[in-house]
Amino acid sequence: MRRARWAYGPFWLTYLFLYTPIVVLVAMSFNAADTPYSWGGFSTSWYGELSGDEAIREGLVNTLVVAAGSTALATVLGTLLAVGLARYPRLRVLAVLATLPAILPDLILAIGLLAFYSAVRATLGLHSVLLAHTVFGMAFVATVVRTRLSHSDTSLEEASRDLGAGPVTTFVRITLPTLAPGIVAGALLAFTLSIDEFVIAFFTAGPKDPTLPIVIYSMVRFGVTPEINALATVLLAVSFTVVILAQRLTRLTDSLR
Amino acid sequence: MTAVPKDARTRAAGRARRPRAEPLVLLGPGLLYLLAFLLVPLALVLSYTIFKRGRFGGIVHEATGDNFTRAADPLYLDVLLTSVKLATMTTLLALAIGYPTAYVIARLPARWKTPALVAVVLPFWTNFLIRTYAWIVLLNSEGLVNSALTDLGVIDRPLGLLYTDGAIVTGLLYAYLPLMILPLYSAIERLDPQLAEASANLGAGPARTFLSVTLPLTLPGVLTGCVFVFVPSLGNFVIPELLGGGRTIMVGNLVRDQFLKARDWPFGSVLALSIVAVLIALLTVQAWAARRFSGEGDHA
Q1: Given an 8 Å threshold on Cβ–Cβ distance, is A7 in contact with B104?
Q2: DSSP letters along A61-80, please?
Q3: Which of B42, B119, B232 minimises the CB distance to A15?
Q4: Residues 6 or more apart whose Cβ sits within 8 Å of residue A192
Q5: What ipTM, to 2 d.p.?
Q6: Of the options 1.10.3720.10, 1.10.443.10, 1.10.1670.10, 3.40.50.2030, the CATH number for the domain spanning A54-227
Q7: A204 near A114, Cβ under 8 Å?
Q8: What whole-number distance in Å separates Cα of residue B168 and Cα of residue B164?
Q9: What is the largest CA-CA distance in chain B?
Q10: What homologous superfamily is domain B77-264 in, according to CATH?
Q11: Are the C-beta atoms of A32 and A45 separated by less than 8 Å?
Q12: pLDDT, tens digit, for every residue of A50-76?
């Protein structure tokens, strides 16, 4: 196979394009000057400022509450749905319906949920964001678990039933453990997506409980402040660590399989 | 557990027969949730398109076609057209840079593939707003791009890069490029390199081989990648606002404003429907093309 020389230019360009902004943000977070456009020496003062920022801390707590709650709900609902859809494959319309929230543009889901909350006269707050995030979280959990199900064989479940175990016992002791890696992966995905989600939260959050992305949005709209660079660096470090850990973890489970 | 009598029945039946309540228990909760939080909300938005707005932002349940006539105004059609144009430009650029990238990654030695892919996805796992913010810093008149160009002597005074259509496309491309590369990678990775070799041995030049062997066989991946980039680009309102500075508005900005500022929900719903209409048209074309070309690609 001959080398595709033509492709190497765009290949390196992609990585340059993807990482230049990130490198600049991280470098500027250690910049003593208060504009991102000139270097005023090394400093960690923006991190100090960041840790004292009440709005950001509050947003972070709100985001974690929403992400934890919606992930828990989405994992239970999505797993049951995935197992159900796998056992009743003739219900294809339902399978499409279950993946719809993952495909639908976030703006459309956002206005729909706002209209819905207003129609049932629900107050907006953290609970309304939590329930909204559950919709797409469930779709992602169901999709990931179904992929896992399509690779697993059902003979263990049949054996369990033949040996006299009831459907609940079989589900808890056979089905769930077999699906565990898929469920964990789906839950992680739902959690990460919820933490980063802005549009739906923007439409369904109460004015008193902004999530972290909403806080970041108002900071960014207000103008360029070096504190955002520090926040960006912290968030980058967290997601890089999580992604690399997840990578190691899947490689570990792959090798154990 | 309440399921005890059912257990007894299953056991009595001897074989692996499933209790009648099973589909209800497994599918019921999820489907009820989807009904309440997906289907009812979408139906509400759809129904709003034919109602009048209330004086204080509510809905008056009185049928009217005014919302549609208003949306047909050249002013709004122009915004929709601009949005389609910017989303299309983003998609084509993503394809132009994403295809060769995916191609190189797919042909890397096995131990380099995963790190290369992870490096493509990593920026995607960081906050979307911060990724957009980074471009405000870079494209600003005092930002890195301008100072680099000045230092290199390419320009003698800063270009107005920020708050342009180019800035919007750059931001959209940065936000969604990984969504193009991943499906392309999986399509190219599956491709048998011997096919290209055979084509070369039979005398086809690299361009001909690419156009008549590689490209048609990876077309499903191309189509998926294009949809993955186009869909979130079209309805985006954050990037046009932050990087377009409000000079160019996209249809997502209009929808946001109608729902949260002007509080004209019926009109906002019609505008949202126009986004959905464009997407349905796109998905129809994608399904048609995928069907047409997968028939030819079967022997691969």
Answers
A1: yes
A2: HHHHHHHHHHHHHHHHHHHH
A3: B119
A4: A239, A242, B125
A5: 0.84
A6: 1.10.3720.10
A7: yes
A8: 7
A9: 88
A10: MetI-like (1.10.3720.10)
A11: yes
A12: 888 888 899 999 999 999 999 999 999
